Amino acid sequence: MRLLPLALALAPLLTVAAAQAHAQADEAARRLAQDAIIVDTHIDAPGVLLERWADLGEAAPDREFDYPRARAGGLDVAFMSIYTSAGQDAAGTAREIAHRQIDAVEALTARHPDRFAILRSPRDVDRLRTAADGSQRVLLPLGMENAAPIGDDLAQLTTFFDRGVRYITLAHSAANRVADSSYGKARRWNGLSPFGRQVVAEMNRLGIMVDVSHVSDAAAEQAIALSTVPVIASHSAFRHFTPGFERNISDALARAIAAKGGVVQIPFGTAFVDAQTAADTQAWFDAVAAFDADNAKRVAAGQPALDAAQFQHDWAAAHPTRQTPLESVLQQIDHGVRLLGVDHVGLGSDFDGVDGALAQGLRDVSDFPNLVAGLQARGYTDADIRKILGGNLLRVWTEVEAGAGR
What we know:
The protein is an alpha/beta fold. The protein folds into two domains: 32-274 and 323-403, TIM Barrel (Alpha-Beta Barrel); 275-321. It is built from 16 helices and ten strands. A five-stranded parallel sheet has the order 1-2-5-6-7, sandwiched between helices. Helix 1 crosses helix 15. The longest helix has 30 residues, at 6-35. It is globular, with a radius of gyration of 22 Å.
C-alpha cells in the first residue's frame, strides 16, 4: 500500500483538533457574552411596534430584538430608538409619534416586569438586571433618533428626559430646527442652528447624551466643541472605509469625540460597513429628494403625481442587497481602536432599523457571541472586549450624568 503524505495522513486528526478548538472558542465567547455587560445603543424596535405590534417579551421571529434572543446573546442594556422621520416633522406629528413609541416600550415593561425594565441611569444597571425572582432582565433606556419631537420648545427636553430619553440624535435624514443632516444636500444652518446651540447646552444641563450620528460634519464639529461633557456617535461606522459617505464619521471627528472623552458606537448594517452599499444609500436619499421635487412641480402644474411605490420598487430592483461578512464589522472596530484607543469604541447595531441588511453572523440580538469570538480571534483581551461591549458607553453615560446641572 502506498504511504500517504504525512499531511494527508494527519488531516482527519487536524480536522478534529480544529473543530475542537473552534468549539472551545465559541464556548469562551458565549461565556464572556453572558458575563460581560453588553450595551447596544441603537435598536429600532419601538417604531416597528407601532407598525405591527408584537410581544417582544416572547419570541418574535419577524423581529431582530426580543427577550429570548437578547438573553441568549448576552444583551443587557438595549437602547430603544424613538425614531421620527423628516416627513413626520414636516407634518407636525413627530411629538405625538415619539410619545406613542415610549408608551409602547412602557407597555412591554408593564407586561413583563420580570424581563424588562426602563433604565434611567447607569447607576441602576446592577440593581435592575436581576428581577425579584432571580431572572435576568434586559434593561431598556431610550434614545431619541431625531430631535424633531422637541419642535422649537426647549422645555420639551425636560418632558422627554422625564420619560426616560437619555440621548438625542440631533437630526436624521433632513435638516430640522436643530441641525443639518449628513444626507441632505441643502445645508440650512451650516451646522447647528442658534436654537440647536441652546439644545446642546440644555441637554448637558439635564444629563442627556448628545449624539452626532446622522448630522453633517459641521453640525457634529460644533456640537462636540460646544458640549461640556463627552458626546457619542450612537450608530456610526468609520468613513475611512466608505469614502464620501458623510453619514459615517470621519477620522478627524472621531478623534474630536475621543478627545472629549466620548465613544463611537459601531453599527452592523451593510449600508454602513460596505462601501458600495454606502454609496447606494446616499444615492437613494439624493434620488428621493429629486423625486419629491419633481412631484411637487407636477402637482403644482396640475399634472398627475408620480407613483412613489413604483419608484421604490424600481430602485430596489436596481440596487439589490449585498452580502457583507462579519469581518467588515470587525475591521471597523480594529480601525476605531487603532485610531482612538480601546476606551472610545462601542456597539450600536441598528437592529430592526435596516430591513435585515446586516452583516453575516450579526443578524439579531442572539449573535453577540459571534462578535466576541471574532474579537478574541483577533487577540483582544477579555478586559478590552468588555470595554467595547458596554463598559465604554456606561463610562460616558456616567460622566454625562455627573456633569448635569452645571
